[in-house]
Amino acid sequence: MKRILLATSFLILASLACNLLVSPKNAQPTTTPSLPALDSEKRCGDGVCDGPEDSQSCPQDCPPASVPSDEGADEGAGGEATPLPTAESAPTEPAQSERPLAFGYLYSSVKLDRTAGNGDCGIDPWFSPDCTMGVKIWWDLHMEAYAATPLVIIPDGANRWVISNHSDVASKYGLQLSPATGVYRSISINPGLTNPECSATIEGSPFDFQVMGTRAEGLTELIPSANPVEHIQGSCMQAGFDWETTHLLFGWAAALSGVPTNLRVQLNDTFKETTGQYTFKNSVDTNPSPQNRDHVVVELGLLCTRSAAAGEAAPAACPWE
């Protein structure tokens, strides 16, 4: 703004100087309205700048116009120029995207052991549409799985953070997180305990593991999403079968949230083990058919780290601590 004012002053002064130079004889100068005009003899030294006189041929009658410059206009009493304010130097509130990010690491393990035996068809989500007679034989089943992922912890207003491992979120901050996957560490099924005429094999493939969450008002809420699927093949009395099941997922969710279709978990400060580390542990008996036959043990840990790089999960204080 000050540079605009200086430029405007220059134009005004230059315009006034031009008016004085081309004014006819005895005209009233606009710069000194209270002084009478002097009669002119149209010669150098008569005190009037007219006729052929100009600042070059008669500087005593036509002194050069004095125009303030940018450099001198802002000089203080000491003669030093005062720097003009700029957009860069103006104090502003830091943009949210420029506030420091933090990093973390989330892991979870789950173990499920199923008691074999006769029962009913169960309830959702374990209920199978193939169970049409209301009676079902549940086979012995064992599964263990593990999932882990680096996280980015993003400031989101006063005393609130967003926690995520989603690639589209991390890319907005110039980060590339390592792929997050879960794996079955061990898995087996044994139909022979209850159905000697049956045989089966079971496999579990690596699965995606995503996380969104928030930290606010002393509570960390994490919402993992995963898609573990078991593939069971076999035969009973020479009749083959090929099934896909999600028994691990239901037990995992039931142990985290109490609901077999919801992996959500909440961590308050009672789960804090040390600076930057929170651990949730739980065990449940679930899958009523009619008695609970799935015995599940789960652990979930949140660790704040110094970096988002894979293999560099050095512990650090969480930003809310």
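Above is the first protein from milestone M3; the second protein from the same milestone is given next.
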Amino acid sequence: MSSTLAADRRATALWLFVIAGLVFVMVGVGGFTRLTNSGLSMVEWKPITGWLPPLSDAAWTAAFEQYKLFPEYQKINRGMDLVGFKSIYWPEYWHRVLGRIIGLAFAVPFAILLYLGKIERVLVPRLVLLLALIGMVGALGWFMVSSGLVERPDVSQYRLTAHLGAAVLLYWLVVKTALRLWSASSPSPLRGEGWGGGEALHTQPAAPPPPGLPPQGGGEKRLAHAGLGLVFLQILLGGLVAGLDAGMIYNTWPLMDGALVPTHLIFSESPLWLNFFENVATVQFQHRIGAYVVTLLLLVLWWRSRKTVLAAHANAVLAALALQMVLGVLTLLHVVPLPLAALHQLGALVLLTTLLVYANRVAR
């Protein structure tokens, strides 16, 4: 591999790591926006012209008067003054601006690097997909907000979960791509990774793994992939919890309403399938069960890896898991205080990141 190719890969990887950092912050700001009930303060979506906030007293008054026309003010915030309106406007404004910044931070360098021939042809379809996914996250954000600008002044839990899931999927794919590029730029032998079109990055021929490293396709690889899938599913279940404010009730642990499985609560809706998406007790219960399943699987992953060259990466996964479990329990016990809830949401991304690093190491 030439030094020029290695340098191009490292530069592209660093750019993508920056994008991942921005998406990480965006998820945190989005969680803050939800927790402060700020998401319905901006009742229009102007993806091109909406960069600037109100810049005069008259503009602020006009924005506030427009907000008053919608159910959230009329049913929940009636009597709010302009100062209170500004306090919920700013989180939503910065969330939307950060989304635009991410779009520009991706599109402009992508175009420049592509023009300069710094991006391998086989990587282009994946980067185009990531750019499209950024746009989809923004569109789903407005689709979510619009669901709360109607008779019921609260966003749909389905749309909130879709918006969160798309953002997390974007983060996942950006980090994975950056890690693979960074690994492929190193002088160590690396198996080729398929990026699209059935092609692979040009790397040195694969060498036998060092002692203690399981072969590609071994149990650790399957555990890592299963862990990533389960953590992503658990994040989606957390989106349903947030959308239904399901963390505001049954604030005890490990028991829920005095039982491990309160069946009189979690299967009270008909038809049965509706419980898993709209019954507040069921949604909280399945998020709890999801946490136990993730914990069990990642403990198995750590146990299998503890005496191999994967041990350091497995220890990082275990530490992130422990932190996330503690944050989740404390958030529940203290009835979803803002700092703990925000940290719990970001903790999910930290756990996902440690698993991505582990999976990347297994693939080498």
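Note on the second protein: The longest helix spans residues 82-115.
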